[in-house]
User: Fold these one by one.
Assistant:
Number 1:
Amino acid sequence: MSNPLRAILLGFLTVILIGTVLLMLPLSSRNGVSFINALFTSTSAVCVTGLIVVSMSHFTLFGQLVILFLIQIGGFGYMSFTSFIFLTFKKKLSYRDKIILKEAFNYPEMYSIVGFFRRIMIFAFTCEFVGAILLFFVFYPNMNFLKAAYFAIFHSISAFNNAGFSLFSNSFADYKYNALLNFTVIFLIVLGGIGFVVINEFYLYLKKKINFLSLHVKVVLLTTILLIFVPTILIYVLEVNGVLQSHGFFKDILVSLFQSVTTRTAGFNTIDLSFMHNSTLFLLVILMFIGASPGGTGGGVKTTVASSVAAAVYSYIRGEKEVILFNRKIPDEAIYKSLVVIILSFFILSLAAFALSDIESVNFLSALFESVSALSTVGLSISTTNLSLSASFDAIGKLIIILLMFAGRVGLFSFSVALFGKKKSRSYSLPVGRMFV
């Protein structure tokens, strides 16, 4: 296949369909699952979203393991596991496989993709292993050894892959003041969502194989820090007399911090979002819309896109002709692509929210929240039940959410290019026209 983006799209689609068939098997659930619910669950798992229309307790151990396997494949990408198996058995990757890997991880170079891939796979499995050990000590006092180990492994993989799937009916609400669980999940989410390119560059920098960190890494780190701590303060201020219930400053800050981190892409929660103020919910919509960083397990329009557009607006207001960050010029192509991603996302989300609010007769904020959560592969939902709002949708509403999750995981820009292909560049220039704005 000549188009690597199209290969990635078809690869995800294939895994989703296989997952759907497996979840419909009698041994996967206690009383059976309909096709649309199996397709929704499989898509949510592969796209590491976390929106559920069927309770996790409805699935058997086999069904839960299928979901966990789909999360792991979805977080790294189907091609990662194929490549991992090839490299494990000392098989060489073809040139086509390397191109697909390069596109899947947004890696800038071809010649070092195999070494990069080995490092990030070791890093990912190490994070999941350490996370499982730490979570085991959280769950073991209330469970037997095997159950605690299973719950720890499941939630560690779900957290690192920013999936948001939980075996608890109320996510982590029962552990909202447990510092070990909160910080373990927070670090797993951040490490998984910050982008493997950033992790790899840090590794090379510490090994003194490179002398400085790139603009990409600096922008990602600064944006991530701001998007963690500023929303934490805002959530605390907006909800200190609301859903936080003023249980003490440090406890309320812990809950606010957890919600700030998980909102951008992971989808776990320790508080009931349906009791939040509308202003807080709109803040969460913005955080979900921005999402994680490129090349990681999270979704959204990405931190670098938001930073590029913000910097462009700031530069234009100041009358500057170039967009500068950290004494480096941002390429015009990057600014143009960032604007396309944001406008395209805004258009699709508006269309989906209007459709859902009309078809499913839900208020617009709830429909918008669900749409952004799906497209940004977050998994949070304004619902009064332990299931997502999508559980109350009919088949058409669920299909809309499924399409949003799929487009969000592949990436709207990549999704468009995969469907329509890249337009060939012209070998000539057209005359410049005048237009007043």
Number 2:
Amino acid sequence: MNQAKLGRTSAHRKAMLRSIVTSLFEHERIRTTEGKAKQLEPVAEKLITLAKRGDLHARRLVAGYVRSDAVTKKLFDTIAPRYRDRQGGYVRTVKLGERQGDAASEVIVELL
């Protein structure tokens, strides 16, 4: 897969994705740029799929990526059971238009 660099070093990009994913699971809806959202979506989907498994190994893998223990607990206890019968497609991206300051295209990313 071709990873967009988003004007960041690989370490900064990884840290940013971890923060955005944590925020998405914490608030269940975030506002960000379209480029970041495109990078976020597959990561969030993969973490929800892991959480649906629910075993200890899956919990440790998720905890290694998500920055907050409380958010990890929320993902396993409330978010994953919601998608028990769903085969993927847990995240929706809605375009908002362009940001006033720099004309970056903004989107809302939310859990279904």
